[in-house]
Amino acid sequence: MTAPAAFHELKARLAEISDLSGVSRLLLWDQQTKMPIAGSAARAEQSATVTRLQHELSSADEVGRLLDELTPWAESLDADSDEASVVRVAGRDWEKARRVPAELTAELRREGALGLRVWAEARPRSDFELLRPSLERILELRRRYVDCFEDYDDAYDVLLDDFEPGMKAAEVQAVFDRVKEGLRPLIAAAEPVDDSILHQAFPIEAQERFSHEMLERFGYEEDSWRLDVTAHPFMSNPATTDVRVTTHYHPDSLHSLFSTMHEFGHGVYERDVDPALDRTTLGTGVSLGLHESQSRMWENLVGRGRPFWRFFYPRLQSAFQEQLGSVDEQEFVRAVNRVEPSLIRIDADEVTYSMHVILRFELEQELIEGRLAPRDLPAAWNERMESLLGVTPPTDADGVLQDMHWAGGLVGYFPTYALGSVMSVQIWERMTEDMPDVDAQIERGEFGELRGWLREHLYRHGRKFSPQETLRRAVGGPIDPEPYLRYLAGKHAA
Amino acid sequence: MTAPAAFHELKARLAEISDLSGVSRLLLWDQQTKMPIAGSAARAEQSATVTRLQHELSSADEVGRLLDELTPWAESLDADSDEASVVRVAGRDWEKARRVPAELTAELRREGALGLRVWAEARPRSDFELLRPSLERILELRRRYVDCFEDYDDAYDVLLDDFEPGMKAAEVQAVFDRVKEGLRPLIAAAEPVDDSILHQAFPIEAQERFSHEMLERFGYEEDSWRLDVTAHPFMSNPATTDVRVTTHYHPDSLHSLFSTMHEFGHGVYERDVDPALDRTTLGTGVSLGLHESQSRMWENLVGRGRPFWRFFYPRLQSAFQEQLGSVDEQEFVRAVNRVEPSLIRIDADEVTYSMHVILRFELEQELIEGRLAPRDLPAAWNERMESLLGVTPPTDADGVLQDMHWAGGLVGYFPTYALGSVMSVQIWERMTEDMPDVDAQIERGEFGELRGWLREHLYRHGRKFSPQETLRRAVGGPIDPEPYLRYLAGKHAA
User: Which of A58, A210, A463, B26 is the Cys-Cys partner for A97 at CB 3.0 to 4.6 Å?
Assistant: First the structure.
């Protein structure tokens, strides 16, 4: 059957929106990797203009008219078809884009930009009170944002929906309660491991060569990927055919290897979305949680596993003969899997990591509902750190001021980090049923079949289905913390 | 006095247009320097979308309404004020943007993109007939483009106006007739120079170091400039505070030094536009001719001059001891100023260069007026090469197929290259009246006063005034080929 003319019109409009998204991703990448610093002010204006135009195109009356016309047609099609999916998802996006007045969006962006500047000053001085007025304004704006919506059970659901569409706070709470319960004994049982072998002088050029070798084994190709250096690693892809991973080499640690693998996971998800979805607004990863499932899968389930190092450790040793020549593989793998409660989320190990996230999730719910006043936040943070991880930050710089998210206006983002970890193991378990020899493949440095499985069962769908439906198609059911807890117990309680 | 509200509205709209121009310049720079090749197709769509949106914003009804409202106010102001200039120039831009239907613009872009692909095939095969159908379509579209305008004496004036606003074909013809007459005896008198010392193995890393040293002396600063490698050097500045020069190092020549200086000239013009004009659409160089006056000034009047090498040659010798240790400064300066008629414009010396341009100017006038049929172009090209330069291309690859401009849809662009050379010497002569010791400064490696003079008399104006008025403010009169011919005679007839 032939698509109606309105569908071609809709696609032409979605193509423009997609193009501007890709442009925004390039602006971001360039800003963090190549832009001369004096270009910052002009870049901020350019990014804001592109975002504003994208929002205007996304919420245009004409898009609504086309969607009204196309919905009956789309509902007559196979719901799995690209056409039906494009109309369905575009409808959802349009509804959301129409809800929020342009002035509120602009105010949120302005306040977030300001908040980040204040945070950058407050953190090194460990001065929470300096940040508090910004935080109060952001919470107020976020409440006004919530008020733009209706039909929700929980204010937090509205915020969460921007990052994990369709997920509810109550579901997250149920998952996190179980995770908390499962992690406590693992954390209590963790035994001290000496990982000083990871903190030696490692020449950066050798780290670079090793990172490239590793990525090429994973499936990085020169014609469609880049690897660049930045202060805080991220992945940004101007197109599915143009995927840019960034990393940060430390002269005195091997930390960069894991952050490179992490960002590769984000990159390969984007790279392997079905090209048929290009320029439809569906041609990108479906949620932050599923994105994080992939970054953490490549970082932890692949990159901290014994099979991985069976292949790569001899190569690492020859790259760093002096530093690692006398360290055996088992000792190395134990060091990269060290578990120990610590203060800083981004440096946390696989086991304690989710506790950091749960703490933020609980606090931001209380903040948005007004049950916790910003002035009481530092004390609440420290108490909860003590209760979840048994450590107390000596300063707010090591506590409540460590992340930029809230200062930048992002509330509802944090849980996706732990949801990703949970889902990563569900997907991994399901994959091993189809590929029982995956460990043997990894030991041979072969990742093609693994990537192929992930592409087929997850990556290619892009935004065609909801995150929940996408997960269901990959693993056969809803989010479930049991595989994650089993995996951690199996690996770390041994 | 306070500007009316409509002026603030107009400026907000111009700011968006300026932002998109900067974004386009980043898209171009990235594409030619960093983008993985598989990203090409997506990038073409992104660039087209940004250009289209920019055109929509530039030709919006509301801009016309604001301009109607503001024109009487602007005319009551000092014409030199930023406010009056913004309204005047925005009015001119709006008029032009309204003239050309979006479909014709899109067709020109499409045909130009196709033409470039065909050209890339036709040139290595030296197959003009392969390109001819594209060329015919482009000429037809360019005639339709001309028809969108009225009140012109000469069809070519309309095309030229896109690159050198306000300039007329008849004026160019008058300048070029005098240039032709003046260059003939210089070319006839040119004596053979052995420049084989420039064609040795020059390690690229040493070229890179030397280029940076040179640019830093010129005023390149890490916080607002970049220097990257590309196939065909260009300059592109996402903002006046973010200027990106590119170059191409050849392992067997020092050619890159001159193309780096050339692109620096383009960059410094953009860098030194008055920051008050940022985000007004006036904050950029006023014409291709004046831009080229600056690239050729820094390349030739600075970079091929004896004072420049008095300072830099000892440094160049120590960078390339083996290659240049036994070559004296005089011999080196003579080699970089060798004059000899040749086939390829971009490799031509300072004296013969304008002849290549004049040839193209004359042929494209005949083509657009229908006095020359595309099928007869190769023969006409070769005849004219013989008459202007005394050489005949052995193949069309070395002749009519060497440039991409016509294939890409650009007609009326070429003359700006030679107009720039002419104006560069007018400006230089005028500058030396104010700075009689400029040679002594350059011999000491000091360029700050020179750059300051150029900023004050030329760069800072951006697009505030017409190119003709901008030149008049710098040199006191209209375009004049005599200083250029005097300079070449003085340097090369000696």
Answer: A58
Residues 6+ apart with CB under 8 A from B71: B87, B91
pLDDT digits (tens, 9 = 90+) for B76-116: 999 999 999 999 999 999 999 999 998 899 899 889 989 99
d(CA B329, CA B291): 30
The sheet with strand A242-247 has its strands ordered as A225-229, A242-247, A235-239
Q: What is the DSSP letter of B81?
A: S
Ordered DSSP codes for A289-328: HHHHHHHHIIIIIITTSHHHHHHHHHHHHHHTHHHHTTS-
Q: Which of B41, B46, B224 is nearest residue A23 as measured by Cβ atoms?
A: B46
- Determine whether the interchain pair B22/A53 forms a contact, defined as Cβ–Cβ distance below 8 Å: no
Looking up tokens 């990525």 gives A215
| Predicted local confidence at residue A1, as pLDDT | 61
Quote the ipTM score.
0.94
DSSP B243: E
CB A30 within 8 Å of CB A50: no
- Contact present, A341 and A391 (Cβ < 8 Å): yes
Count other C-beta atoms under 10 Å from residue B322's C-beta.
10
Cα nearest neighbour of A237 on chain B? B39
Q: What was the pLDDT predicted at A102?
A: 86
Span A399-429, pLDDT tens digits: 999 999 999 999 999 999 999 999 999 999 9
Is the pLDDT score of B179 beyond 70?
yes
Q: Which residue from A179, A80, A171, A167 is spatially nearest to A467, judged by alpha carbons?
A: A167
Strand partners, B245: B227, B235
d(CA A430, CA A475): 6
Q: How confident is the model at residue A106 (pLDDT cuts 50, 70, 90)?
A: confident
Q: Which of A35, A49, A238 sits opposite B242 (nearest CB)?
A: A35
User: Element (H or E) spanning A244, and its range?
Assistant: strand A242-247
Q: Residue B2's pLDDT is what?
A: 80
Place of tokens 């030199």: B80
Asked if A45 and B19 come within 8 Å (Cβ–Cβ), the reply is: yes
Mean pLDDT, residues B476-491:
97
Residue with tokens 């979840």: A388
Instruction: With CB atoms and an 8 Å threshold, state whether A242 touches B42.
Output: yes
Of B157-161, B418-422, B489-493, the one with minimum mean pLDDT is: B489-493
Closest CA to A494 of A337, A365, A327: A337
Calculate how close chain B gets to A270, using CA atoms only, in Å.
13
Q: Hunting for tokens 């020109």 — which residue is that?
A: B108
In the structure encoding, which two tokens stand for residue A419, read together? 């949801």
Alpha carbon of A246: minimum distance to chain B alpha carbons (Å) = 14
Q: Which of B20, B31, B32, B34 best tests the A interface by mutation, with the highest count of A CBs <10 A?
A: B34
pLDDT digits (tens, 9 = 90+) for B316-326: 999 999 999 99
Whole-structure pTM value:
0.95
Confidence at B494, pLDDT banded by 50, 70, 90: low
Nearest CB among A43, A52, A242 relative to B38 is that of: A242
Instruction: Determine, for residues A42 and B225 on separate chains, whether the beta-carbon distance falls below 8 Å.
Output: no
Chain B contact present for A103, CB below 8 A: no
Instruction: State the burial class of residue A328 (Cβ atoms within 10 Å of its Cβ: 0-12, 13-18, 19+).
Output: exposed
DSSP string covering A245-269: EEE---TT-SHHHHHHHHHHHHHHH
Cα angle vertex B227, ends B221, B230, to 5°? 170
- Alpha-carbon distance of B264 to A38, in angstroms, equals 18
Nearest alpha carbon to residue A379 among A400, A354, A398, A360: A400
| Residues of B belonging to the active site | 263
Query: CA A420 to CA A350: how far, in whole Å?
Result: 12
